[in-house]
Amino acid sequence: MLHIYNLNAFYGDSHILHNVSLTVERGKVTVLLGRNGMGKTTTIHSIMGMVPARTGKIVLEQIEIQDKASFQVSRLGVALVPQGRRVFPNLTVRENLMTTYRPVEGGWTLENIYAMFPRLKERESSMGGDLSGGEQQMLSIGRALLTNPKVLLLDEPSEGLSPLMVREVAEIIRQLKQQGLTIFLVEQNLAMALELADFVYILSKGSVVFGGAPDELDAHVKNKYLLLSS
Ligand SMILES: Nc1ncnc2c1ncn2[C@@H]1O[C@H](COP(=O)(O)OP(=O)(O)OP(=O)(O)O)[C@@H](O)[C@H]1O
Q1: What is the pLDDT of residue 228?
Q2: What is the pLDDT of residues 141-182, one digit of tens each?
Q3: Distance between Cα 178 and ligand 1 center (Å)
Q4: CB of 84 closer than 6 angstroms to any ligand 1 atom
């Protein structure tokens, strides 16, 4: 569904991503792990056209998207649930949801978003800024789904949430996968990530240092790239 080939990305002169190659398979949950500052968000932002690819290719269903603007990438079927959720604080829940709505026959509608997230229905007239962190995360996921994407990118959706809310977010991701959605998940929460993942990549200092099934991640790899501070 989505392939990245030898992606190199920079902020000014800082070379952040080094020949990153990875594949996000249709209908699967692909997880990108790595400690703080290793380039996970930069990878997601490169896919979305928010950080330019200096070299390399990003291919969505045979279409090269590495030179496209974010709105074009979005129209082609990629949606982002950004780190920190980024809900509009001064719009109501309903208005937040409707800003991105792109109707597709048989796709997501406001009604089935409310069916999946009853709490959003209850709070539909509340301002985005008045919601709890967990509610904002639901809103951010609902808003992305209303673009009716083929691929959903989630950047650390568990960040700052209570353990109970982390379980809820994991359950939502599981349901979306069951419905056939293709998911690319950046996470720091190893337990949640490994529970959901069909395939795992690890980034270290902007390079992919591991790619494999979750059960191939042994203690050595975890200790080297995930658990201990560098
Ligand atoms: N706008 C920016 N300008 C310059 N450098 C940046 C910018 N954004 C990120 N960086 C640097 O790029 C590197 C990768 O950052 P990135 O946010 O992709 O990491 P990450 O793995 O997502 O970490 P985190 O979990 O903290 O979000 C870091 O060294 C960071 O300091």
Answers
A1: 55
A2: 999 999 999 999 999 999 888 899 899 999 999 999 999 999
A3: 32
A4: no
Does the pTM surpass 0.90? The reply is yes
The pLDDT score that the predictor gives to residue 71 is 94
Q: Which of the residues in the chain have pLDDT under 50?
A: 229-230
Minimum CA distance residue for ligand 1 atom 16:
39
**Closest ligand 1 atom to Cα of 83:** 27
Closest of 153, 227, 157, 141 to residue 190, by C-alpha: 227
Q: How far is CA 88 from CA 53, 66, 145, 155, 177, in A?
A: 28, 28, 16, 17, 27
Note whether 22 and 30 are within 8 A (CB): yes
Under 8 Å CB-to-CB from 228, ≥6 apart: which residues?
none
**Whole-Å CA distances, 100 to 25, 87, 136, 139, 140:** 25, 12, 15, 12, 11
- Dist CA 216 CA 31 (whole Å): 14
Angle at 157 between CA 24 and CA 208, to 5 degrees: 40
Report strand pairing: 29-33 vs 182-186: parallel
36 in contact with ligand 1, CB cutoff 6 A: yes
CB 21 within 8 A of CB 5: yes
ipTM: 0.92
Element housing 43 (H / E):
helix 40-47
